[in-house]
Amino acid sequence: MAHGVLRWLRAAVTGKRTVPLPPVMLPPLPRPAPRPRPTRSSTLAATPTFNPDAPLPAPVREYQEVFDRRIKMWNGGGLDGAIESYRALTIDLNKQNLLDAYLQLLRNLADPSPTTRIDFHALPQGARPYLLGPYLGTLVGHAYPRLCWQTSAPSKGWLTYIFPGGPADLMTWRQRMPDICAWLGAGWTLGPASANTITLIRRHPLPEIIPFTRLMLKPGSLFLGIETESQSRAWLPFTEMTSGTFIPGASGTGKSNALHIIVQSLLANLSLFEAVYLIDGKDGVAFNRYRNAAPGKVHVLWQDADVWQLMTDLTGLMRRRNEAQREKNIDNATSDFIAVVIDEMATFTAKPSVDAKHPDNKRHAQFVDELTMLARRGRSTGLRLIISAQEPVIEQIPASVRANCLTTLAFRLPMDAHATAVFGQLDSLPADPRRLLRGRALLKDGLSGEVRQVQFPVIRKP
Ligand SMILES: Nc1ncnc2c1ncn2[C@@H]1O[C@H](COP(=O)(O)OP(=O)(O)OP(=O)(O)O)[C@@H](O)[C@H]1O
Ligand SMILES: [Mg+2]
Fold first, then answer.
1. Is 291 among the domain residues?
2. 205-210: long-range contacts at Cβ-Cβ below 8 A with a sequence spacing of 24 or more?
3. Which of 11, 33, 65, 299 is placed for a possible disulfide with 19 were both Cys, Cβ 3.0 to 4.6 Å?
């Protein structure tokens, strides 16, 4: 190459002729590495793949879950477990969407539309608390109360309802508690309430046997068991008692046990009583234990003649009290009560002789008249009659006496006729009187007519 260049330079200088420039020899370029021939597997690996089993990213999953629930919400189905699901959401927008779907459902139900229909009795149990307002059908200010998703915990038995349209309708809810419990299942009870909220709390069922303790008693009141719904104690102030209280119930349902607990209330409040008469239709067996409880104040009777005489004496006493009250312009007693407790009234209702002309029958008729008069007029003069019988029929308690025993504590009455004779309609009661458990009773307030179910504790024999 050096030679060629020199020759070219000489020719160029001498100007003889142009000599073509010798070619420049460049080092060879490195050869690119051979491209591998595509195989079938490498082609697949190179393109992005879709694995239907791969988990979706968390935000997508969350969105999907909310979406699914909202779709199912139109008929209430997506409400089951909605609060738990709501709490587990991490994206605020998803939370808002889920809650909005619930609120929209309530609005649709409040403004009846042909597209939103709920079959309340087909709803899963877990969805029911959300639609309690529409189930009860109680609109307040054109809106149904809604379950508060912030404070409620359905699985833990705590439901708070907000009334967006007006004041909380506590009265209606209290009256409809039996219906609410039947629909929601298990024992719900009214908890704390405010101007625009009502809370329901789920209670564990009461134990079959509750032992009696004196702590259950209250000054100035008769203790009448534990309310099964609220599980609070039921008391009836002596001043608010009607003159007669009737305790019917089939044999072995718990009447005598209840009477012993009633006697405990009387003994604990003896200062309010002038006298307590315990009359035992089973020959003094049950009440004998109180013979020496308070000599001179507590009397135990079982003989017909003694009982008849007592009614005559009390009738005279009531007349005298009436006169004294008239002079003082008082029409209610607040102390010096007289309690007459009769277990197994049937013993004293039966006529002493089948011979209609027997003199004892005449005396017995006088006894029934006096007892009726006491039951009718005893309230204002401080007489408190408490009478038990197995059946609410005239063979066991004279109709005139029963008609004046406005307060009723009914233990199980298995026969339809007896249950309806005491309560009339049975559907609206908190429990069916024909199927009450042992020791349970329906307590009908003689003044307000309100009926509650109570369970009596068991008192041990001394
Ligand atoms: N509150 C109660 N809870 C659980 N068991 C009770 C309760 N009251 C009574 N019992 C049970 O039922 C039995 C019968 O009760 P009790 O003697 O009070 O019935 P009764 O209605 O007076 O029956 P009878 O009409 O035959 O006199 C008791 O021995 C007791 O074991
Ligand atoms: Mg008895």
1. yes
2. 206/231, 206/455, 208/437, 208/439, 209/439, 209/458, 210/455, 210/456, 210/457, 210/458
3. 11
What DSSP designation does 28 have?
A: P
- Alpha-carbon gap, residue 372 to 431, rounded angstroms: 30
Question: Residue 315: inside a domain, yes or no?
Answer: yes
Query: Could you tell me if the CB of 256 is within 6 A of ligand 1?
Result: yes
Query: Along the chain (462 residues), what's the average pLDDT of each consecutive run of 10 residues?
Result: 56 57 62 67 61 84 92 89 96 96 93 77 94 94 96 95 94 90 88 95 90 96 92 93 95 96 97 96 86 94 95 95 84 87 95 87 94 91 95 94 95 97 90 96 93 95 75
Q: d(Cα 448, Cα 429) in Å, to the nearest integer?
A: 15
**Could you count the other beta carbons within 10 Å of the beta carbon of residue 462?**
6
- Ligand 1 close to Cβ of residue 377 (< 6 A): no
Does 311 share its domain with 224?
yes
Length of the chain, in residues: 462
Could you tell me the residue range of the domain that residue 340 belongs to? 214-455
Residue 281, ligand 1, Cβ within 6 A: no
What is the C-alpha to C-alpha distance for residues 245 and 84, in angstroms, rounded to an integer? 49
Separation of CA 234 and ligand 1 centre (Å): 19
What is the distance in A from the centroid of ligand 1 to the CA of 280? Answer: 16
Q: Against a cut of 0.85, is the pTM above it?
A: no
Residues 264 and 324 in one domain: yes
Q: Are residues 232 and 265 in the same domain?
A: yes
Establish if 45 belongs to a structural domain: no
Residues whose beta carbons lie less than 5 angstroms from ion ligand 2: 255-256
Helix or strand run (H / E) with residue 398: none
DSSP assignment letter at 272: G
Question: Has residue 49 been placed in a domain?
Answer: no
C-beta of residue 458 within 8 angstroms of C-beta of residue 257: yes
Query: Six-digit token pair at 278?
Result: 């315990």
Residues 199 and 218 in one domain: no
The ligand with the least distance to the CA atom of 247 is 1
Same domain, 198 and 267: no
Question: Pick from 149, 174, 203: which residue ends a domain?
Answer: 203
> Do 232 and 177 share a structural domain?
no
Tell me: do 307 and 331 sit in the same domain. yes
Half-sphere exposure for 322 (CA within 13 Å, toward CB): 13
Which phi and psi angles does 95 have, rounded to 5°?
A: -60, -50
Among 153, 176, 203, give the residue marking a domain's end: 203
Number of domains in the chain: 2
My answer on whether 177 and 225 are in the same domain is no
